[in-house]
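Methods — Computational structure assignment.
A single polypeptide chain was analysed. Its primary sequence is given first, followed by the predicted tertiary structure written as structure tokens.
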Amino acid sequence: MKNVSPVIGYNISNRIGTERIAILFAIAASLLFELGMAERKYGLFGGGFGQSHALAGGSEIALFLLTVLTAQTLIVGLAYRLIGGLMKNRVRRLVRLFAFLFLTIGLLCGVVIGKFQLLSYFSDTVSFGLLRNLGGGSLLDAALFGLSESALIVQILGGIVLLWLICLFLIRRVSNPHDKSWPCAVSGRAILSLCIAMPILLLWCNAYANVRYAVVRMTTPALITDALNLLTDFDRDGYSWFSPLRDNAPFDASRHPMALDIPNNGIDEDGLAGDLKLPPQQPEPPLPTLPAHPKHLVLIVLESTRGDVMGKRVNGQVVAPNMEALARSGSSAAEAYSHVGFTTASLKSLFTGQLEPKVGAPSLFRDLRHAGYRIAVFSGQPEDFGDISAVTGMRENADIFSDAEAMKADRAFGFAAQGSLLVDESKLLGEFDRRLGKAADWQKPTFVYFNFQSPHFPYHHDGMVDRIEKNPIPRGNIDAANRDHVQRTYWNAVSYSDRMIGEVIAKLKALGIWQDTLLVVTADHGESLFEDGFLGHGHRINRIQTHVPLILSEPGVDLSGPIGLRDYRRIILSTLAGRTAATPRKQVLRYIGSLDEPVAIGLVNGSGTGWAFDTSAQESWFENRNLYRRYADMAPGSAERRDTEQLIHVWGAERWATHVPVGR
């Protein structure tokens, strides 16, 4: 065997040292960057606004740091060996080393930036399911909606590519073209040791709620956790040894966290709040029959309009004078709520009276068609979005159907994602005048549905009358740092929609049918404007995202709360029939995601007191007290535990009702 000269041995050792320094730099740079971003977003170490999970004490911090460092080292080490294997003996060593650093640091930091940019608008409950809801059931449309800043993204990507090319050019000029060695700076034994250590550390983290919460918000530990979840989900029920909610029956697919709890069978399938107990259910009374000559119905649904619009003042100006005047002369609800906080689900509930109706469900459109109404739709959004029309029977029962898909020439924005299509209210009223602008058009009972979209993000478009904010914030400047400007722009949009409500009322009076019309004004959901740290809707269970206005032109209607969107169908039909609606519910159920697998569930009562339960963290939040309590820490018989278990059972009963076969 030939002896290795001291010079060659020194060179190999020196190169390995250089490679290891590069690896350590990649680990440290990417990890420190994400830790800084995570601390700013979540307050993992010091706590923060709206955060209930902060690492407590040195032991939790040490376990967290050890876990994320191990995960980062494993991923970076694997990347090093992968790049070395792909480029071995074909690319110069310095070029290969640069590629490793650029791709690992750049890719990891790029993922972190993308993630936290998304979360700067949404809460950390965001998921594929929630994005699908944002896209009306389509992940593709949600992606298109989110890529409306595509010009900026292309510029950033172009800058990265340009930087890569410049650095690559410089490195090729100074590197040795004959040096294509790739010293093994990360051994297979080291990778194996890290692979063994990670499951142990993650199981250890799961024993501490704060540490578990912090770890899964870091990119590399979350990636490894997902892989381990897939490997240890033996019964393929979606839960494993490594999921935040551990599967204690790993080979029984009927028993796991979030399993359907079959009522009154003595088995707690989901391991939460005991077996679901359902008392004998009383059927709801039948819907009223309308008289021979009922009133016309005009329903106006405002997009993303919060319940606190009533009485809202901005710099001394009344935001919604027409809605307030209508409430004074008619009836209004102080506590009306969206169940889900997404447009598609909200409209389906409003029209059908169900939380999660199927295609062909009974609905207000089908009710009024059967009662002999003429039906007209004037919507600023595409009503086929998320199957709204198919579920509610909107298009099939409409005599006149004008929405954002049909009125292509009148769209406010050119972007093609369905969720971003918008037609200004003035265009809708122009179409109304053209189709129903004569008294002769109202000889038979008529149902008109308007959907006003101006309060939708980005809260402004060309053609709006700016009354509250004369200088609306540009879309690209919408962020938490400009919160006050964002809020004024939003209320300006709501005020514009209110102005259009006033025009609808004026048109109905000019036609001589105002006294023969029931006008209903409401919204599909509310909107966070960074008051809770987030922008938008459908990702937090709180008042500002779910509380909506509800106003009827008919005086004396009992709208004592709380009222959910699914109660509207009965309220409207009862009012048209001249009857009092059924006794209101004691609470309104709210949830994030689907009823079957919600991210969180919540209740709100008639006084506006709300509380919610995070199904993953197993933690309750009592909104009015801003109090967080882990379910496991609640004393038996305590008010917090009683309220939490009441919420779980209300949700369980609603969920069970969707699984009971028809006629059972």
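Note: The first strand starts at residue 296 and ends at 302.
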